[in-house]
Design a protein that fits this description.
about 180 residues, alpha+beta, five-stranded antiparallel beta sheet, 4 helices
């Protein structure tokens, strides 16, 4: 290969790589500075029921949403819950759940966020064993109503009675072996 071909090859490979890196960094900086996609504005504040403003205390926009207007529900988005279904015959399937918790005020939402390891532990204990025993299954399919009932009990165990308005199952995926 001649020198010109090697140089052209370097430019052809490095130029798109540099462009992609600059684009990626630019997107990261736009999101870090509040970006135009934020519904609460650049200050990171959200409206409270009485009209006062409450800081989200460093939580990302994806963890706690809603509550923009008086009376609006507030949603705490839990991390994805991945549960193996194991019976006496071995691993049967993997169930993946996406759960949101609906609450009335930001105090409860922040409390749930602060207790997230306890929340995930309670959900894992409540759902893992019942799936393995078949109590939350109809045949091989997950019974969503029973999952919601058990998840409500688990969340109430962590938050206390009367603090959670609703448990919303946003997604279920099953991989059956």
């Amino acid at each position: 290969m001649t020198f010109c071909r090697i140089r052209a090859l370097r430019v052809a490979v490095l130029l798109p790589l540099c462009f992609a890196t600059a684009l990626f960094l630019g997107m990261g900086l736009a999101n870090a500075s509040g970006g135009a996609s934020s519904s609460e504005g650049k200050e990171g504040t959200v409206g409270h029921k009485e009209g006062a403003e409450v800081k989200k205390q460093g939580k990302s926009d994806q963890e706690i949403t809603g509550g923009r207007f008086s009376g609006d529900p507030i949603y705490v988005h839990l991390p994805v819950l991945i549960l193996p279904v194991i019976s006496s015959k071995g691993a049967q399937q993997i169930v993946t759940l996406l759960i949101n918790v609906e609450v009335d005020n930001f105090g409860v939402a922040n409390d749930i966020h602060d207790k997230m390891p306890h929340m995930m532990d309670a959900l894992m204990r409540a759902l893992y064993g019942k799936l393995g025993e078949g109590d939350l299954l109809e045949g091989k399919l997950v019974n969503i109503d029973r999952v919601k009932e058990q998840a409500t009990k688990a969340v109430t165990e962590v938050t206390g009675s009367g603090k959670v308005r609703n448990i919303l199952i946003q997604g279920v995926a099953q991989r059956i072996y």
